[in-house]
Amino acid sequence: MKKLRRTMLFVPANNPNMIMNAPVFKPDCIIFDLEDAISLKEKDSARDLLVEALKTFEYCNCEIFARVNPLYTPFGKDDVRELVKAGLRNVRLPMSETDEDIKNLDVLLTEIEKDLGIDRGTVKILGAIETAKGVINAEKIAVASSRMLGISFGAEDFTRTIGSERSREGEELFVARCKIVLAAAAAGIDAIDTVYADIEDEEGFEREAQSARKLGFAGKSVIHPRQIGVVHSIFTPSKEEVYRALRVISAIQEAEAKGLGVIALDGKMIDGPIVDKAERIVTLAKGAGLL
Ligand SMILES: CC(=O)SCCNC(=O)CCNC(=O)[C@H](O)C(C)(C)COP(=O)(O)OP(=O)(O)OC[C@H]1O[C@@H](n2cnc3c(N)ncnc32)[C@H](O)[C@@H]1OP(=O)(O)O
Ligand SMILES: O=C([O-])CC(=O)C(=O)O
Ligand SMILES: [Mg+2]
User: Distance between CA 95 and CA 98 in Å, rounded?
Assistant: First the structure.
């Protein structure tokens, strides 16, 4: 079944309380962060804490990621090595700017998998695109390795690299968002939208999440448990959408039995792509436990 990645909750890896409590909020995915949420002084101790947490806790219903430090920093390679040894199977690589960045991680993972005696390709990669250069190279990044399960957008760093500020309306992000969605779709992987830093601005957050779904993102990174419910309700098909999708599928099945490829349902044309979209709604609904 398709894994839902509606929410990816960032959890700073130096915070034992949050590390322990994160699954209680039922995000689809948790990203333990060793990069920007962790000061230079704490990089090693946070990694040690996360290694212990990965060995100790069962995060049964959440898909677990770690945002490691970029491989060109003094911490990145050790992050990957130690965490994979402790059981990590999904690496979120920040500052993915070129296909080389992904390929370097791929080579390192292959080495580690060999050392650990696990199958090559076990560990997956989510490439975080958060610079102008990364956005330009999104298409190459998305297909740089067979380990790719998705690419994500990081708007805080992205606005820094284009010399802009992040606005509530987000016009400055539109082109990058579209490019990331297109690159992911062409590669057949998920696109994950960026965080919204203003935890108090529920209205702005909801509008941004709505827009992310419309653009084609599979989900959104979040920084606070309060943001999870909103994203889940937006990225889960509504009852009406599911009902309509099931009717579309059943109508086309009846039509096919009569030798017809196109029909009308409630005055609207139903043909191949519309049926495919209805099937996607049903898949998402099943993933969310609605069917
Ligand atoms: C641009 C980027 O790089 S974004 C990615 C890096 N940033 C991060 O990882 C930040 C993640 N988020 C956080 O650290 C926090 O939400 C903050 C610092 C923004 C706010 O934290 P707080 O002021 O403690 O929030 P608040 O008081 O509302 O928290 C309420 C409860 O939710 C918990 N909580 C808050 N955020 C999280 C989280 N991300 N994961 C798990 N639990 C959380 C708190 O521990 C607290 O629990 P408690 O009641 O048991 O003490
Ligand atoms: O990946 C994200 O959503 C958060 C991030 O690092 C950024 O916005 O720079
Ligand atoms: Mg960033």
Answer: 9
Question: How far is the first Cα of the chain from the last one, in angstroms, to the nearest whole number?
Answer: 13
Q: Are strands 263-265 and 268-270 parallel, antiparallel or unpaired?
A: antiparallel
Ligand 1 neighbours (beta carbon < 6 A)? 9-12, 17-18, 21-22, 33, 36-37, 156, 195, 223-225
Domain range annotation of the chain: 7-235, 239-288
DSSP letter assigned to residue 73: S
Residue of 67, 131, 151, 157 to mutate, ligand 2, most atoms within 8 A of C-beta:
157
71-98 pLDDT per residue, tens = 999 999 999 999 999 999 999 999 999 9
- CATH no. of 7-235: 3.20.20.60
pLDDT, tens only, 220-240: 999 999 999 999 999 999 999
**The pLDDT of residue 183 is above 80:** yes
Q: What is the ipTM of this complex?
A: 0.99
